[in-house]
């Protein structure tokens, strides 16, 4: 009998916890955006099977990983169920998000929390991508670059005044640039949880092949 009562209490606790977590994931209720640019050569170093992004003739540098609504601490996740991303929209995003599964995933996990329509969410991604100035050094390198994470940050900030960002690494290699914007897509400081995770003083930027 005691074990049965414990099971019921555990079940009710889990139900309340899940309900409160879901309540926090309300479309349009968040504090700021995290716009993430992925360094495609790093992705392709381990995902050569990804033909849409890494196949023959696919030579990308920075591509969009996603536009993520954030809380000052944590983030909302999968805020509502929505129809699948139409093939037309996925195809339109291929030049900057060259993987249909990624496009679908980003909408379901993050876009549904933005409070925007699907069309407006991906339109905002394209608009913001077009306004970011990529430093020349990272436009199309044909050989590895050894550089400090702080130098990467300073080059982006110099090319984009007011920008606040974090550099993400995978081991010794550049993985992503994560840029913070307010809800109106103006530069703002990042939340405490958005920090560079690179441990080495010098990291490697893989070449675009």
What does this structure look like?
The chain has 209 residues and is of the alpha+beta class. It contains 7 helices and 6 strands, in the order H-E-H-H-E-H-H-H-E-H-E-E-E. It has helices at residues 2-24, 40-46, 51-54, 87-92, 100-109, 118-131, 149-159, and strands spanning 32-39, 62-70, 145-147, 165-170, 173-181, 203-205. Strands 2-1-5-4 form a 4-stranded antiparallel sheet. The protein is globular and about 45 Å long. The chain starts with a helix and ends with a strand. The model is unreliable at 1-23 (pLDDT under 50).
What is the gist of this entry?
The protein is an alpha+beta fold and 209 residues long.
Question: What labels describe this entry?
Answer:
globular; disordered N terminus; alpha+beta; two-stranded antiparallel sheet; 209 residues; 7 helices
Biggest sheet strand order reads 2-1-5-4
Fraction of helical residues: 25-40%
Low-confidence runs: 1-23
Structural class: alpha+beta
Layout of helices and strands:
Elements: H1 2-24, E1 32-39, H2 40-46, H3 51-54, E2 62-70, H4 87-92, H5 100-109, H6 118-131, E3 145-147, H7 149-159, E4 165-170, E5 173-181, E6 203-205
Antiparallel strand pairs: 1-2, 1-5, 3-6, 4-5
